[in-house]
Amino acid sequence: MCLAVPARIIDRSDMMATVEVSGVTRRVSLMLLPDARVGEYVLVHAGFAIQTVDEEEAKKTLELFEEMAAHENAG
Asked: Which of 69, 67, 51 is nearest to 9 (CA)?
């Protein structure tokens, strides 16, 4: 199964961005989203930002990921 993760763009240089997810940063390509801006949330898959997402939906999804991780660690 493949999964795209919502991440917030915190820096941008040309067609690359630094994104943050739960305190972890990584570099991703913006070739598929050339108009993405710092502060926006994007779905990241395989090193590419593939779609912009609403901040509220991104935060809900990240909360669900955290709940799943907590449940997995508890069991």
From this structure: 51
Identify each DSSP E strand in the chain by its residue range.
5-13, 16-21, 24-29, 41-45, 48-53
The CATH architecture one would assign to domain 5-74 is Roll (2.30)
The ranges assigned to domains in the chain are: 5-74
**What does pTM read for this prediction?**
0.86
Element (H, E) at 70: helix 55-74
pLDDT digits (tens, 9 = 90+) for 31-75: 999 999 999 999 999 999 999 999 999 999 888 888 888 887 886
Residue 73 to residue 20: CA distance in whole angstroms: 23
